[in-house]
Amino acid sequence: MIVAFSVAPSGTGNADGSVHDAVAAAVRVVRDSGLPARTTSMFTEIEGEWDEVFDVVKRATEAVLPFGSRVSLVLKADIRPGWTGELDGKIERLEAAIDAQPDA
User: Fold this and answer.
1) What b/e sequence results for 54-87 when a residue is b if at least 16 CB atoms lie within 10 Å of its CB, and e otherwise?
2) What angle do CA 22, 42, 65 make, to 5 degrees?
């Protein structure tokens, strides 16, 4: 499965609303997990089995707790039993489909 998630604190007291320190703590948990993952400007995607992925999401969320009075978690999952390597595979198939389209 692939899970895309975003976790951020609120009630941080930061005048500029910045949450990068909290997000860095969450991303560190993901990277330390050893599971295939990538982080973009809005989400972190992680790939693995159900229990291991959700364990990492839980620990990443807990890493954000000290940074505010509450935490928001947005999560989307692509559950496709029997498939692995889809973090890159889905993008490769998309790029191939784009390349195969005739020019407009």
Assistant:
1) bebbeebbebbeebbeebeeeeeeeeeeeeeebb
2) 25
| Per-domain boundaries in the chain | 2-100
77 beta partners: 3
Give 11-58 pLDDT, tens digit per residue.
877 777 789 999 999 999 999 999 999 999 999 999 999 999 999 999
Q: Which residue type occupies 75? A: L
Identity at 79, one-letter amino acid code: I
Q: How far apart are CA 78 and CA 97, in angstroms?
A: 20
CATH class given for the domain over 2-100 = alpha beta
The DSSP secondary-structure symbol of 82 reads T
Structure tokens at 1: 């499965």
The string of pLDDT tens digits covering residues 49-90 is: 999 999 999 999 999 999 998 999 999 999 999 999 999 999
